[in-house]
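Researcher: Please translate sequence to structure tokens.
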Amino acid sequence: MTAIEPDRVVAVVGTGTMGQGIAQVALVAGHPVRLYDAVPGRAEQAAVSIGGRLDRLVEKGRLDPAARDAARARLYPAAELAELADAALVVEAVLERLSVKQELFAALEDIVADDCLLATNTSSLSVTAVAGALRRPGRFVGLHFFNPAPLLPLVEVVSGFATDEAAAERAYGTARSWGKTPVRCADTPGFVVNRVARPFYAEALRVYEERVADPATIDAVLRECGGFRMGPFELTDLIGQDVNEAVTRSVWESFFQDPKFTPSLAQRRLVESGRLGRKSGQGWFPYGEGLAAPSAHTAEPCEAPDAVGLHADLGPAAVLREMIEEAGIKVTRDRTPYVSEGFIGLPAGTRLSLTDGTTATGDPSGAYIHFDLALDYRSCTRIALAPGADADPDDVRAAIGLFQRLGKQVSVIGETPGMIVGRTVAMLIDFAADAAGRGVAGAEDIDTAMTLGVNYPGGPGEWCGRLGARWAHHFLSTLDGAYPGGRYASSPALRHRADLEAKQVRS
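Model: Translation complete:
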């Protein structure tokens, strides 16, 4: 795969945090780099800042002093756009405004050579639209780096409607030669990561809006039960509530207000109040010296039952039987008739079952307590329980004690269909299947993008392989019944995969 030769000039237009990071990556890879900014003096300031970053790499032992000196010698601030004429690649990282980017690239087209690759680092605008004003849009691509660019390995290589295959291949090869992990994707709102990741934020916000649990508890369940690196509330506080809400709104509007991408009124109100997260000192949580991190609601210690019954298979939670027996609790076979779904029978008759997209109240077959999905029940450290209105209080305490005996902290939350991790994972699986089915990116590239771009504990395609497309489709169909309107309707791609799994089981 052809990459731009290391001795060819790379130009970066826009010298904010992202522009400086991209320039540093190209410098360390051996390229001469030209920096340009429309504001006089900013390119020179950026060059000084990049030099300081290189010094810190030397101090940490990650860069040889001679390599640092050579990199500094290859860095040139440019006073005029015309000084970028010899560039083999120009990467733009300016204001996220379509007209600004179009004007910039129209000007560059009159300056650079015909073989110069033009790239935008946009995260929210259409690559096709940015290239729409060019005479030769075939050489135009998206090169979407993630912040901080020197540290995060993922780069989305985005082909616009008119992008030549050779240009996309050259951009891919160049990113790879810089030590990055590129993924190819089509020009779609949000590309891969910002499209597929929407449910991670949206489902948590919906649970919060239903007053089922507070932000700290929702975050803790997704971290400690789901295995995600950060919870969505602390993550959006870090990103900036205004930034995250703007991306959500942009994707929603770009998909013609598809209900699957509907923004959150609660987040809108947070932004309107000026509570933007860490940068303003207050978001979902307060920030400042001496302030303790908010704590999740965690149940007090309870006694575990001496014995429980087990009816049928627990599906994705099947390992719990082994864990319960290993913890010294007797497991007997429950032969309750006319019930096909697996559950754990508690001493007073309440059934403890894995969430399936329903709520625990209202099941005519008996009283239920639902527990949340965990992607790894052995390693997770927290479980969420949602008791139905008719659950026996002693059995609620028994369920808490059961999971505490297994070494888990327990958060008791209000009832909501699919609870927290279950509905989030099912939606992420569906969004990934839909993106793959529509040709946005290959399934493997989507998993790579989600694990490297947003540090998910696995890829949605991997989860679908483990849990099953039929599980995800059934889960979402149940949610769709609870919340009519299309938000939870399975994508055609997921339904097709579920049908194939069903045929394989029958054959």
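Researcher: Any highlights?
Model: The two ends are 42 Å apart (CA to CA).
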